[in-house]
Amino acid sequence: MEIRIGLIGAGWMGKAHTNAFVNALIAFGQEYGKPVFEIVTDISEEAAKKACNNWGFSRWTIDWKEVVEDPHVDVVDITTPNAFHYEVAKAALENGKHVYCEKPLTLSYQQSKELADLARQKGVINYVGYNNVMNPANYYIKKLIDSGKLGNVMRFDGTYDQDMLLDPALPISWRHINKYSGSGALGDLGSHLISVSQFLMGNIESVNALSKTFIKQRPSSAGSHDLGEVENDDMVSVLANYENGAVGTLSSSRIAAGRKNFLSYEIQGTEGSVYYSLERLNEVNVYFTSDNSADRGYRTVFLGPEHKGYTAFNPAPGIAIGFNDIKILEVHELMAAVVKGTSYICDFAFGASIDLTVSAILESAADQKWVDVKNKSIV
Ligand SMILES: NC(=O)c1ccc[n+]([C@@H]2O[C@H](COP(=O)([O-])OP(=O)(O)OC[C@H]3O[C@@H](n4cnc5c(N)ncnc54)[C@H](O)[C@@H]3O)[C@@H](O)[C@H]2O)c1
After folding, report:
1. Each residue's pLDDT tens digit, 118-152
2. Between β-strands 262-269 and 227-229, what pairing exists: parallel, antiparallel or unpaired?
3. 17, 18, 43: which to mutate for ligand 1, most atoms within 8 A of CB?
Protein backbone atom coordinates (compact mmCIF):
# COMPACT_ATOMS: atom_id res chain seq x y z
CA MET A 1 0.00 0.00 0.00
CA GLU A 2 1.26 3.45 -0.90
CA ILE A 3 1.24 6.20 1.73
CA ARG A 4 1.26 9.50 -0.15
CA ILE A 5 2.78 12.34 1.85
CA GLY A 6 2.15 16.06 1.65
CA LEU A 7 4.82 17.88 3.67
CA ILE A 8 4.14 21.38 5.01
CA GLY A 9 7.34 23.09 6.23
CA ALA A 10 10.69 22.29 4.64
CA GLY A 11 13.03 23.15 7.52
CA TRP A 12 14.91 20.98 10.02
CA MET A 13 11.97 18.78 11.04
CA GLY A 14 10.69 18.57 7.45
CA LYS A 15 14.03 17.00 6.56
CA ALA A 16 14.02 14.73 9.65
CA HIS A 17 10.49 13.46 8.87
CA THR A 18 11.30 12.79 5.21
CA ASN A 19 14.49 10.97 6.20
CA ALA A 20 12.42 8.92 8.65
CA PHE A 21 9.83 7.93 6.01
CA VAL A 22 12.61 6.81 3.62
CA ASN A 23 14.37 4.80 6.30
CA ALA A 24 11.24 3.36 7.93
CA LEU A 25 10.71 1.50 4.64
CA ILE A 26 14.24 0.09 4.83
CA ALA A 27 14.02 -0.72 8.54
CA PHE A 28 10.54 -2.29 8.55
CA GLY A 29 9.69 -3.20 4.94
CA GLN A 30 6.77 -2.57 2.57
CA GLU A 31 4.40 -4.50 4.81
CA TYR A 32 3.95 -1.20 6.68
CA GLY A 33 3.38 0.87 3.55
CA LYS A 34 5.54 2.47 0.91
CA PRO A 35 6.02 6.22 1.37
CA VAL A 36 5.42 8.29 -1.74
CA PHE A 37 6.65 11.87 -1.59
CA GLU A 38 3.80 13.58 -3.37
CA ILE A 39 4.04 17.32 -2.66
CA VAL A 40 6.00 19.71 -0.44
CA THR A 41 5.26 23.29 0.54
CA ASP A 42 6.99 26.09 2.41
CA ILE A 43 6.35 29.83 2.62
CA SER A 44 9.83 30.16 1.18
CA GLU A 45 9.69 29.26 -2.51
CA GLU A 46 13.41 28.52 -2.45
CA ALA A 47 13.01 26.08 0.48
CA ALA A 48 10.06 24.34 -1.19
CA LYS A 49 11.92 23.94 -4.50
CA LYS A 50 15.08 22.74 -2.79
CA ALA A 51 13.20 20.18 -0.70
CA CYS A 52 11.34 18.97 -3.79
CA ASN A 53 14.59 18.45 -5.72
CA ASN A 54 16.73 17.06 -2.89
CA TRP A 55 14.26 14.97 -0.89
CA GLY A 56 12.42 13.26 -3.75
CA PHE A 57 9.03 15.01 -3.82
CA SER A 58 7.16 15.05 -7.14
CA ARG A 59 5.77 18.57 -6.84
CA TRP A 60 6.11 21.77 -4.79
CA THR A 61 3.88 24.75 -4.05
CA ILE A 62 3.95 27.80 -1.79
CA ASP A 63 0.27 27.40 -0.86
CA TRP A 64 -0.31 24.94 2.00
CA LYS A 65 -4.05 24.83 1.20
CA GLU A 66 -3.24 23.01 -2.04
CA VAL A 67 -1.62 20.25 0.04
CA VAL A 68 -4.46 19.71 2.50
CA GLU A 69 -6.99 19.59 -0.34
CA ASP A 70 -4.91 17.42 -2.68
CA PRO A 71 -6.77 14.16 -3.49
CA HIS A 72 -3.37 12.46 -4.07
CA VAL A 73 -2.27 13.07 -0.44
CA ASP A 74 -3.02 10.51 2.32
CA VAL A 75 -0.91 11.93 5.19
CA VAL A 76 -0.47 15.65 5.79
CA ASP A 77 2.86 16.08 7.59
CA ILE A 78 3.09 19.42 9.46
CA THR A 79 6.56 20.68 10.37
CA THR A 80 5.95 24.43 10.42
CA PRO A 81 6.54 26.64 13.47
CA ASN A 82 4.02 25.99 16.27
CA ALA A 83 1.56 28.78 15.42
CA PHE A 84 0.63 27.22 12.08
CA HIS A 85 -0.10 23.72 13.40
CA TYR A 86 -3.71 24.41 14.43
CA GLU A 87 -5.06 25.98 11.25
CA VAL A 88 -3.25 23.54 8.94
CA ALA A 89 -4.12 20.43 10.99
CA LYS A 90 -7.76 21.49 11.24
CA ALA A 91 -8.03 22.00 7.47
CA ALA A 92 -6.29 18.65 6.83
CA LEU A 93 -8.66 16.82 9.21
CA GLU A 94 -11.66 18.49 7.62
CA ASN A 95 -10.44 17.11 4.29
CA GLY A 96 -10.32 13.61 5.81
CA LYS A 97 -6.51 13.35 5.80
CA HIS A 98 -4.37 11.47 8.29
CA VAL A 99 -2.30 14.10 10.14
CA TYR A 100 1.24 13.86 11.48
CA CYS A 101 2.09 17.08 13.33
CA GLU A 102 5.21 18.26 15.13
CA LYS A 103 5.04 19.16 18.80
CA PRO A 104 3.69 21.11 20.60
CA LEU A 105 0.39 20.26 18.91
CA THR A 106 -0.96 23.84 19.10
CA LEU A 107 -0.58 27.02 21.12
CA SER A 108 -3.28 26.13 23.66
CA TYR A 109 -5.07 23.21 25.29
CA GLN A 110 -8.38 24.40 23.83
CA GLN A 111 -7.06 24.28 20.24
CA SER A 112 -5.44 20.86 20.80
CA LYS A 113 -8.58 19.41 22.38
CA GLU A 114 -10.63 20.68 19.42
CA LEU A 115 -8.24 18.93 16.99
CA ALA A 116 -8.27 15.71 19.05
CA ASP A 117 -12.09 15.70 19.01
CA LEU A 118 -12.22 16.43 15.27
CA ALA A 119 -9.69 13.66 14.51
CA ARG A 120 -11.74 11.16 16.54
CA GLN A 121 -14.90 12.23 14.73
CA LYS A 122 -13.21 11.84 11.32
CA GLY A 123 -11.69 8.46 12.27
CA VAL A 124 -8.25 9.34 10.88
CA ILE A 125 -4.76 8.78 12.26
CA ASN A 126 -3.64 11.76 14.32
CA TYR A 127 -0.03 11.65 15.44
CA VAL A 128 2.00 14.27 17.30
CA GLY A 129 5.81 14.16 17.11
CA TYR A 130 6.78 13.64 20.75
CA ASN A 131 9.64 11.43 19.57
CA ASN A 132 11.24 10.98 23.00
CA VAL A 133 8.33 8.73 23.92
CA MET A 134 9.51 6.39 21.11
CA ASN A 135 13.02 6.13 22.55
CA PRO A 136 13.74 2.43 23.36
CA ALA A 137 15.35 3.64 26.62
CA ASN A 138 12.08 5.20 27.76
CA TYR A 139 10.13 2.04 26.88
CA TYR A 140 12.60 0.02 28.95
CA ILE A 141 12.25 2.42 31.88
CA LYS A 142 8.45 2.27 31.61
CA LYS A 143 8.69 -1.51 31.79
CA LEU A 144 10.81 -1.24 34.96
CA ILE A 145 8.17 1.01 36.52
CA ASP A 146 5.10 -0.97 35.38
CA SER A 147 6.60 -4.34 36.43
CA GLY A 148 7.16 -3.00 39.95
CA LYS A 149 10.94 -3.41 39.72
CA LEU A 150 11.46 0.07 41.18
CA GLY A 151 8.81 -0.53 43.89
CA ASN A 152 6.53 2.40 44.61
CA VAL A 153 7.70 5.30 42.50
CA MET A 154 8.04 8.38 44.70
CA ARG A 155 9.85 10.98 42.61
CA PHE A 156 10.54 12.23 39.07
CA ASP A 157 13.32 14.82 38.92
CA GLY A 158 13.81 15.97 35.32
CA THR A 159 15.47 18.68 33.28
CA TYR A 160 15.57 19.58 29.62
CA ASP A 161 18.35 22.11 29.07
CA GLN A 162 20.09 23.37 25.96
CA ASP A 163 22.39 26.36 25.40
CA MET A 164 21.37 27.03 21.80
CA LEU A 165 20.06 30.51 22.68
CA LEU A 166 22.69 31.51 25.26
CA ASP A 167 24.38 33.98 22.92
CA PRO A 168 22.49 37.33 23.26
CA ALA A 169 23.68 38.32 19.77
CA LEU A 170 21.45 35.65 18.25
CA PRO A 171 18.49 37.41 16.63
CA ILE A 172 14.81 37.16 17.47
CA SER A 173 13.14 34.14 15.87
CA TRP A 174 9.64 32.62 15.97
CA ARG A 175 10.68 30.83 19.15
CA HIS A 176 10.76 34.17 21.07
CA ILE A 177 7.37 35.52 19.98
CA ASN A 178 4.29 34.08 21.68
CA LYS A 179 1.89 34.38 18.77
CA TYR A 180 4.20 31.98 16.88
CA SER A 181 5.48 29.76 19.71
CA GLY A 182 2.94 29.92 22.57
CA SER A 183 5.75 29.95 25.15
CA GLY A 184 9.53 29.82 25.37
CA ALA A 185 11.73 27.06 26.79
CA LEU A 186 8.59 25.56 28.33
CA GLY A 187 6.76 24.74 25.09
CA ASP A 188 9.87 24.10 23.05
CA LEU A 189 11.90 21.86 25.40
CA GLY A 190 9.77 21.48 28.52
CA SER A 191 6.92 19.91 26.52
CA HIS A 192 9.28 17.04 25.54
CA LEU A 193 10.20 16.54 29.20
CA ILE A 194 6.51 16.58 30.19
CA SER A 195 5.71 14.07 27.42
CA VAL A 196 8.32 11.64 28.76
CA SER A 197 7.31 12.21 32.36
CA GLN A 198 3.57 11.70 31.65
CA PHE A 199 4.33 8.61 29.53
CA LEU A 200 6.31 7.09 32.41
CA MET A 201 4.53 8.40 35.48
CA GLY A 202 0.99 9.22 34.34
CA ASN A 203 -0.65 12.62 34.46
CA ILE A 204 0.42 15.58 36.56
CA GLU A 205 -2.26 16.68 39.03
CA SER A 206 -1.05 20.13 40.12
CA VAL A 207 1.87 22.47 39.50
CA ASN A 208 3.65 25.44 41.04
CA ALA A 209 6.00 27.17 38.63
CA LEU A 210 8.52 29.96 38.28
CA SER A 211 9.68 31.25 34.91
CA LYS A 212 12.15 33.96 33.85
CA THR A 213 13.40 35.76 30.79
CA PHE A 214 17.07 36.65 31.19
CA ILE A 215 17.81 37.92 27.67
CA LYS A 216 14.97 40.42 27.34
CA GLN A 217 15.93 41.88 23.95
CA ARG A 218 17.67 40.49 20.89
CA PRO A 219 18.71 41.93 17.51
CA SER A 220 15.72 42.04 15.17
CA SER A 221 17.89 40.32 12.54
CA ALA A 222 21.46 39.00 12.44
CA GLY A 223 23.98 41.81 13.08
CA SER A 224 21.25 44.49 13.39
CA HIS A 225 21.37 47.23 16.05
CA ASP A 226 17.56 47.32 16.17
CA LEU A 227 16.38 45.31 19.15
CA GLY A 228 13.19 43.30 19.49
CA GLU A 229 11.48 42.14 22.70
CA VAL A 230 11.80 38.52 23.79
CA GLU A 231 8.27 37.68 24.95
CA ASN A 232 8.69 34.36 26.67
CA ASP A 233 10.59 32.26 29.19
CA ASP A 234 14.29 31.46 28.86
CA MET A 235 13.88 29.10 31.78
CA VAL A 236 11.17 27.52 33.87
CA SER A 237 11.15 25.47 37.08
CA VAL A 238 8.14 23.48 38.23
CA LEU A 239 7.11 21.63 41.37
CA ALA A 240 4.53 18.98 40.53
CA ASN A 241 2.21 16.44 42.12
CA TYR A 242 1.49 13.37 39.99
CA GLU A 243 -1.89 11.62 40.11
CA ASN A 244 -0.03 8.47 41.24
CA GLY A 245 1.12 10.31 44.41
CA ALA A 246 4.71 10.92 43.31
CA VAL A 247 6.46 14.27 43.59
CA GLY A 248 7.95 15.95 40.53
CA THR A 249 10.56 18.61 39.95
CA LEU A 250 10.83 19.61 36.31
CA SER A 251 12.90 22.39 34.78
CA SER A 252 13.96 23.63 31.40
CA SER A 253 16.32 26.26 30.02
CA ARG A 254 17.34 27.31 26.52
CA ILE A 255 20.30 29.32 27.86
CA ALA A 256 22.02 26.62 29.98
CA ALA A 257 25.76 27.02 29.33
CA GLY A 258 27.33 23.69 28.49
CA ARG A 259 24.10 21.76 28.04
CA LYS A 260 23.51 20.63 24.47
CA ASN A 261 20.61 18.20 24.57
CA PHE A 262 20.30 17.54 28.29
CA LEU A 263 16.93 15.84 28.61
CA SER A 264 17.80 14.00 31.78
CA TYR A 265 15.87 12.60 34.67
CA GLU A 266 16.04 10.42 37.74
CA ILE A 267 13.13 8.32 38.96
CA GLN A 268 13.33 7.09 42.53
CA GLY A 269 11.27 4.22 43.86
CA THR A 270 11.18 2.23 47.09
CA GLU A 271 13.13 -0.63 45.46
CA GLY A 272 15.32 1.11 42.94
CA SER A 273 16.10 4.12 40.82
CA VAL A 274 16.81 4.99 37.20
CA TYR A 275 18.89 7.82 35.80
CA TYR A 276 18.79 8.67 32.09
CA SER A 277 20.16 11.47 29.91
CA LEU A 278 19.51 11.99 26.22
CA GLU A 279 23.12 13.19 25.89
CA ARG A 280 24.01 9.53 26.57
CA LEU A 281 21.09 8.20 24.53
CA ASN A 282 22.17 4.54 24.55
CA GLU A 283 22.87 4.25 28.29
CA VAL A 284 20.28 3.64 31.01
CA ASN A 285 21.60 3.76 34.57
CA VAL A 286 19.79 1.51 37.03
CA TYR A 287 20.03 0.81 40.74
CA PHE A 288 18.16 -2.03 42.43
CA THR A 289 17.95 -2.62 46.19
CA SER A 290 17.60 -6.34 45.34
CA ASP A 291 21.24 -6.47 44.16
CA ASN A 292 23.71 -8.13 46.52
CA SER A 293 24.47 -5.36 49.05
CA ALA A 294 28.28 -5.66 48.74
CA ASP A 295 28.08 -5.00 44.98
CA ARG A 296 25.17 -2.60 45.03
CA GLY A 297 25.51 0.61 43.05
CA TYR A 298 24.26 2.36 39.96
CA ARG A 299 25.16 0.36 36.84
CA THR A 300 24.80 1.03 33.13
CA VAL A 301 22.56 -0.94 30.79
CA PHE A 302 23.37 -0.33 27.10
CA LEU A 303 20.47 -0.43 24.66
CA GLY A 304 20.32 -3.72 22.75
CA PRO A 305 18.01 -6.15 20.95
CA GLU A 306 15.90 -6.76 24.06
CA HIS A 307 14.78 -3.12 24.06
CA LYS A 308 11.71 -2.25 21.97
CA GLY A 309 12.58 -0.87 18.51
CA TYR A 310 16.34 -1.45 18.67
CA THR A 311 16.48 -4.45 16.31
CA ALA A 312 15.11 -2.32 13.48
CA PHE A 313 18.67 -0.96 13.26
CA ASN A 314 21.20 -3.38 14.79
CA PRO A 315 21.34 -7.09 15.67
CA ALA A 316 23.79 -6.77 18.58
CA PRO A 317 23.77 -4.65 21.78
CA GLY A 318 25.69 -1.45 22.43
CA ILE A 319 25.79 -0.20 18.83
CA ALA A 320 24.64 3.36 19.25
CA ILE A 321 21.37 4.61 17.80
CA GLY A 322 20.55 8.32 17.50
CA PHE A 323 17.90 11.04 17.18
CA ASN A 324 17.03 10.23 13.57
CA ASP A 325 16.55 6.55 14.43
CA ILE A 326 14.00 7.52 17.05
CA LYS A 327 12.18 9.61 14.42
CA ILE A 328 12.18 6.44 12.24
CA LEU A 329 10.51 4.51 15.08
CA GLU A 330 7.95 7.30 15.36
CA VAL A 331 7.19 7.27 11.63
CA HIS A 332 7.00 3.47 11.68
CA GLU A 333 4.33 3.65 14.40
CA LEU A 334 2.41 6.16 12.28
CA MET A 335 2.67 4.02 9.13
CA ALA A 336 1.65 0.87 11.02
CA ALA A 337 -1.41 2.73 12.30
CA VAL A 338 -2.34 3.81 8.75
CA VAL A 339 -1.81 0.39 7.16
CA LYS A 340 -2.71 -2.05 9.94
CA GLY A 341 -4.77 0.05 12.34
CA THR A 342 -2.36 -0.56 15.24
CA SER A 343 -2.58 1.61 18.35
CA TYR A 344 -0.16 4.39 19.24
CA ILE A 345 0.50 6.59 22.26
CA CYS A 346 1.25 10.02 20.82
CA ASP A 347 -2.19 10.83 19.43
CA PHE A 348 -3.70 14.30 19.50
CA ALA A 349 -5.39 13.56 22.84
CA PHE A 350 -1.91 12.85 24.30
CA GLY A 351 -0.68 16.10 22.69
CA ALA A 352 -3.62 17.95 24.24
CA SER A 353 -2.80 16.51 27.66
CA ILE A 354 0.74 17.95 27.38
CA ASP A 355 -0.68 21.33 26.31
CA LEU A 356 -3.00 21.23 29.32
CA THR A 357 -0.03 20.78 31.67
CA VAL A 358 1.87 23.53 29.81
CA SER A 359 -1.06 25.93 30.19
CA ALA A 360 -1.33 25.15 33.92
CA ILE A 361 2.41 25.88 34.29
CA LEU A 362 2.05 29.19 32.41
CA GLU A 363 -0.86 30.19 34.66
CA SER A 364 1.02 29.18 37.79
CA ALA A 365 4.14 31.12 36.79
CA ALA A 366 2.08 34.22 35.90
CA ASP A 367 -0.05 34.20 39.07
CA GLN A 368 2.56 32.72 41.45
CA LYS A 369 0.19 30.06 42.78
CA TRP A 370 -0.51 26.32 42.68
CA VAL A 371 -2.71 25.36 39.73
CA ASP A 372 -4.82 22.23 39.56
CA VAL A 373 -4.17 20.77 36.09
CA LYS A 374 -7.36 18.71 35.83
CA ASN A 375 -9.61 21.59 36.81
CA LYS A 376 -8.16 23.67 33.98
CA SER A 377 -9.62 21.18 31.52
CA ILE A 378 -13.09 22.12 32.75
CA VAL A 379 -12.52 25.85 32.10
N1 LIG B 1 10.42 16.66 17.81
C2 LIG B 1 11.53 17.34 17.92
O3 LIG B 1 12.52 16.89 18.49
C4 LIG B 1 11.59 18.73 17.34
C5 LIG B 1 12.83 19.35 17.10
C6 LIG B 1 12.83 20.62 16.52
C7 LIG B 1 11.64 21.25 16.20
N8 LIG B 1 10.46 20.63 16.46
C9 LIG B 1 9.18 21.27 16.11
O10 LIG B 1 9.07 21.25 14.68
C11 LIG B 1 8.44 22.44 14.21
C12 LIG B 1 9.35 23.10 13.18
O13 LIG B 1 10.58 23.38 13.79
P14 LIG B 1 11.93 23.42 12.93
O15 LIG B 1 13.04 23.44 13.92
O16 LIG B 1 11.90 22.41 11.85
O17 LIG B 1 11.77 24.88 12.30
P18 LIG B 1 12.49 25.46 11.00
O19 LIG B 1 12.45 26.93 11.18
O20 LIG B 1 13.78 24.76 10.72
O21 LIG B 1 11.49 25.03 9.81
C22 LIG B 1 10.18 25.51 9.70
C23 LIG B 1 9.88 25.68 8.20
O24 LIG B 1 8.49 26.03 8.06
C25 LIG B 1 8.40 27.07 7.08
N26 LIG B 1 7.15 27.78 7.33
C27 LIG B 1 6.90 28.74 8.25
N28 LIG B 1 5.61 29.09 8.19
C29 LIG B 1 5.03 28.36 7.21
C30 LIG B 1 3.72 28.27 6.67
N31 LIG B 1 2.72 29.04 7.16
N32 LIG B 1 3.47 27.39 5.66
C33 LIG B 1 4.49 26.64 5.17
N34 LIG B 1 5.76 26.68 5.63
C35 LIG B 1 6.01 27.52 6.66
C36 LIG B 1 9.65 27.90 7.27
O37 LIG B 1 9.94 28.68 6.11
C38 LIG B 1 10.70 26.80 7.54
O39 LIG B 1 11.28 26.32 6.34
C40 LIG B 1 8.15 23.28 15.43
O41 LIG B 1 6.81 23.08 15.83
C42 LIG B 1 9.10 22.73 16.50
O43 LIG B 1 8.60 22.86 17.82
C44 LIG B 1 10.42 19.38 17.00
Report:
1. 999 999 999 999 999 999 999 999 999 999 999 99
2. unpaired
3. 43
Look at residue 379 in the predicted model and tell me its pLDDT. Answer: 40
- Across 309-328, b (16+ Cβ under 10 Å) vs e yields bbebbeeeeeeebeeebbbb
Q: Is 132 in the pocket of ligand 1 (CB under 6 A)?
A: no
Give the model confidence (pLDDT) of 221-259 as tens digits. 999 999 999 999 999 999 999 999 999 999 999 999 999
Closest C-alpha to ligand 1, atom 30: 43
Q: Is residue 335 part of a domain?
A: no
Domain of residue 151, residue span: 133-317+354-367
CB of residue 191 inside a 6 A radius of ligand 1: no
C-beta of 198 in contact with ligand 1 (< 6 A): no
Nearest CA to ligand 1 atom 6: 13
| Index of the ligand 1 atom closest to the CA of residue 14 | 16
Distance between CA 171 and CA 67 in Å, rounded?
A: 31
Answer for the pair 115, 105: CB distance below 8 angstroms, yes or no. Answer: yes
Given a contact cutoff of 8 angstroms between Cβ atoms, the answer to whether 73 and 38 are in contact is yes
328 belongs to a structural domain: no
CATH of the domain at 274: 3.30.360.10
Give yes or no: residues 39 and 161 share one domain: no
pTM as predicted: 0.96
